[in-house]
Specification:
Helix content: over 70%
Number of domains: 2
Strand content: under 5%
Largest sheet: none
Number of strands: 0
Structural class: mainly alpha
Distance between the termini: 78 Å
């Protein structure tokens, strides 16, 4: 009789503990998979050279900053050379 009571109480508790552990592990795997594409995109954008449209947009933004007085002429030239050399 004692064994039946023990198994009636212990089995549901063990089942619940395994359920919680499995859920936590699956959430961890899902979070890892969800974060992976973000890391790939960040690496891809930093490694790729800019295409002509992106390059002209960046230079235009730099020029606007120079004209508004945020950048000096020297800073503008350095940033432009950096864009053109990458």
């Amino acid at each position: 009789m004692e064994k039946i009571i023990f198994f009636a109480i212990a089995l549901p508790i063990l089942g619940f503990v395994f359920y919680l552990g499995g859920t936590a592990i699956m959430k961890g795997f899902k979070a890892k998979v969800d974060n992976r594409p973000q890391e790939q995109e960040e690496k891809d954008t930093s490694d790729k050279p800019l295409n002509n449209d992106q390059l002209s947009n960046e230079i235009t933004k730099l020029n606007e900053l120079r004209q508004s007085g945020v950048l000096t002429e020297e800073e503008f030239e350095k940033a432009k050379k950096k864009l053109l050399n990458d």
